[in-house]
Each structure stands twice: as structure tokens, then as C-alpha cells.
Write a structure and sequence with these properties.
single chain; transmembrane helix; 3-stranded antiparallel sheet; alpha+beta; Late embryogenesis abundant protein LEA-2 subgroup domain-containing protein; 2 helices; NDR1-like; 7-stranded antiparallel sheet; elongated
Length: about 220
């Protein structure tokens, strides 16, 4: 082994090799990655839970028995309802009251489709203009069905129609298919698609609604 001497001939011993640096795979980076991932997932979970909680709160506020949005048929006019050769000619008008009793919640009616049924067969359709209903507000919808539509009545259905024709009192169902959003302060919910069914309607031809026809409607999701 060669020995190192100074310029003046002095001996300083063997040369000291440079230190070696060993890189040992550490756990710091992987731990940091895991912690960041867990933190991110927890934030996502808490955000989702908060949104779900807000959604449930709004739905509870709107549809609880005290402050439930109510639909009610107030006026009906049936001036034509004639079934011949499997064709139904009709002229029918409804006024529907929508009452929002909530103090802080407004409702966006983004889509309103009105449908009329006789013996579970649809014969009338109307698309109504979207609107916003403020809190503690009553809105009246005017729904008009007029025209001619193929409707097949056989057996018991035809017997029922002839019986109602003789009495001048018809059992007609009104259905509203909605797409709505709720507004609480500056917060707006996602869209909901409830159906409003008014199926306890006994409508006389050219007359006032008969006793026993409540006009109340049910909300179904």
C-alpha cells in the first residue's frame, strides 16, 4: 500500500478514503402519501355527509306534515267527453292550487307535465310554463285538455263508461309530473322528480263537481 508523504518529506500515514453514503429506502415519503390520501378521503366523506345531511334537512322541512307542500284541484270544467269508435273527444279544464307554506324555502318548478287519464289510459297532455314559487305562496295552475285521442274501452271498461255517461259523472285522474329544485337561502338542491296524483275526481259533464270529490292530490316520489 502506498504511503503519502508531505512536500517536506514528513509521513502522514495512509490516505483516508472518502466517506460512503448509503441510501436506505425510508418510510417518510410513503407515509406522507398514505396520510395525504387518508386526509383527502376523509374530506370527501365529510363533504358528502354534509351535503346528504343538508338534503335530508331540506326535504324534511318541506314535506313534514306541518309544512308540507299541498296540491289541490279547486275548479273543474268538463264540456265534452264523448267516446265513439275507440276515439275519445274531450274538452276539460282544471285549476290546481299549489301551496308552499314554508317560511324560508322556495321551489323551482323546472318542468311541469300535466296528464289526464280515464280507466288508466292517458288521453290528455299539456306542458306548462316553468316558474319559481316563493315561500309562503299560493300559485294557481290552469290546465287545459282539448282534442281527440284513441282510447280503447272493452268489457268492464266500456260498461263503466256507459254507466258514467248515463249518470253524467266521470271518474278522471289528473297527474302532474314535475322536475323541481328547492332553495334555502343561497343553497339550491339537485332536481327531484315527484308525481302529483289527483285520482279522487268525480267530474260532471257541464256541471259543478259532485259531493265526495275531495280534489286533494297525493305527492309520490
Amino acid at each position: 500500500m502506498a504511503e503519502k508523504q508531505g512536500l517536506n518529506g514528513a509521513y502522514y500515514g495512509p490516505a483516508i478514503p472518502p466517506p460512503r453514503h448509503y441510501h436506505r429506502p425510508g418510510r417518510g415519503s410513503s407515509c406522507c402519501g398514505c396520510c395525504c390520501l387518508v386526509t383527502f378521503l376523509l374530506k370527501v366523506i365529510f363533504t358528502v355527509l354534509a351535503l346528504v345531511g343538508l338534503f335530508l334537512l331540506i326535504v324534511w322541512l318541506i314535506f313534514r306534515p306541518i309544512n308540507k307542500v299541498k296540491f289541490h284541484v279547486t275548479d273543474v270544467a268538463l264540456t265534452e267527453f264523448n267516446h265513439t269508435n275507440n276515439m275519445l273527444r274531450y274538452s276539460l279544464t282544471f285549476n290546481v292550487n299549489i301551496r308552499n307554506p314554508n317560511k324560508k324555502i322556495g321551489i323551482y318548478y323546472d318542468r311541469i307535465e300535466a296528464k289526464a287519464f280515464y280507466e288508466d289510459q292517458r288521453f290528455g297532455y299539456q306542458s306548462l310554463t316553468p316558474f319559481y314559487q316563493g315561500h309562503k305562496n299560493t300559485t294557481v295552475l290552469n290546465v287545459v285538455f282539448k282534442g281527440e285521442q284513441p282510447v280503447t274501452l272493452q268489457g268492464q271498461e266500456l260498461t263503466q263508461f256507459n254507466s258514467e255517461k248515463a249518470s253524467g259523472l266521470y271518474s278522471i285522474t289528473l297527474e302532474l309530473s314535475l322536475r323541481v329544485r328547492f332553495k334555502l337561502g343561497k343553497v339550491k338542491t339537485t332536481r327531484f322528480k315527484p308525481k302529483i296524483e289527483c285520482d279522487d275526481l268525480k267530474i260532471p259533464l257541464n256541471g259543478l263537481p259532485a259531493a265526495g270529490s275531495s280534489g286533494k292530490c297525493d305527492i309520490k316520489f
